[in-house]
Design a protein that fits this description.
The structure is a single chain. Helices cover 59% and strands 9% of the residues. By secondary structure, the protein is an alpha+beta fold. The protein has 2 domains: 50 residues; 181 residues, Glutaredoxin (3-Layer(aba) Sandwich). β2, α2 and β3 form a beta-alpha-beta unit. α2 packs across α4, α3 runs antiparallel to α4 and α5 runs antiparallel to α6. The chain is elongated.
Amino acid sequence: MSQPMKKSTYKSQRKAEAEKQEKQRKAMRKLFWAIGIVAVLGIIAALIFTPKPDPTAFEYDQLPILGKADAPVKIVEFGDYKCPSCAVFSQQIKPQIEKEYIESGKVALYFINFPFIGEDSTTAAIAAQSVYHQNNDAFWKYFDALYKNQQDEHTVWATPEYLVQLAKDNQIDVDLDLLKKDIEEGTYESEVNKHSKAANAAKVLSTPTLFINGEEFTGQFSDYAAIKKAIDEALAAGQSE
């Protein structure tokens, strides 16, 4: 027959059990703290080592292109069709780049809209995007026509009627009725807005702004010698890789 447990023995066992449970609780707290620390360190490491999106990693295949897509040097121009400086670049600098580098397959020129001068800057950009989506080659002819026929930046001149007539007068190879419809309905307004967001992400402050293989050209847009030097350096860098 079992004997009744002594009171002192019972208390000792209760104390031992309580101490055991407390040790287990402390061990679990330490484990949770360790797991928490590891998780926090993991998040910090991810923030530090995860590459951030590159704002100058342009979506070249979605932009108007002058030249060959596999050209080793890619130049992106941010421009506004109402910008007088962009007209200078179009008429004085672009032809030199085209003759010396684009025709030989060394450079491809791309264009991104950054319409900020007036409401009709956006209208002109929508018209140009309509032409681009119909015919990439026609885009560049229209691009030049817009700048050659550019009017005072302080007046509203890029109206739907003017933009369609300009395409007609310069024999731009597109469906003029579709062009008119795209302008009036703002078919490519969201695309133009996306271009503006890309400009903001790349911290573009003025037009024309050039990026050569993703690096902003910080010289004067009208200084062809400086642009040529930057292109040659980009070509040399590509050959050394």
